[in-house]
Design a protein that fits this description.
150 residues; alpha+beta; eight-stranded mixed β-sheet; 3 helices; 20% helix; globular; N-acetyltransferase; Acyl_CoA_acyltransferase
Length: 150
Amino acid sequence: MNASAFPTEFEADLVDSLRADPTAWIEGLSTVTLDENGAIVAYALLTRCTVGGQPALALGPCAVVPGAQRSGAGSAAIREVLEQARHRGENLVVVLGHAEYYPRFGFTPASEFGVTAPFAAPDENFLALALKPDQTTPRGEIAYAEAFGV
């Protein structure tokens, strides 16, 4: 999947490392989208991170095989994994990604939540989403799983 969606093996290796990390991997918070023939064409992954020392989730990597891009397969995978997280009682999700893509799922600049990154990130690309907007969300700096290397 990653080999066809990305130009290097970095994302595939990252997913393998996240899967092997019991502090990051959460069973049930990765999802795939299948095409009409049952082939995997997209996936989305949420892993444990912390914000200000409190539990949160990081979205990514997400991928879509080239032939299925712009078909809605990636959006379907992301919507499904966010819904799974909501059902599990999770709240804050953070993503570093395309400013034009993630707002369609409700993501807004993480700075609006008081969330900062441990690296320089443009406000329009470092985004957050409260799955339960009526509840408070943690504030502070995000600490990603070790596999992310930040």
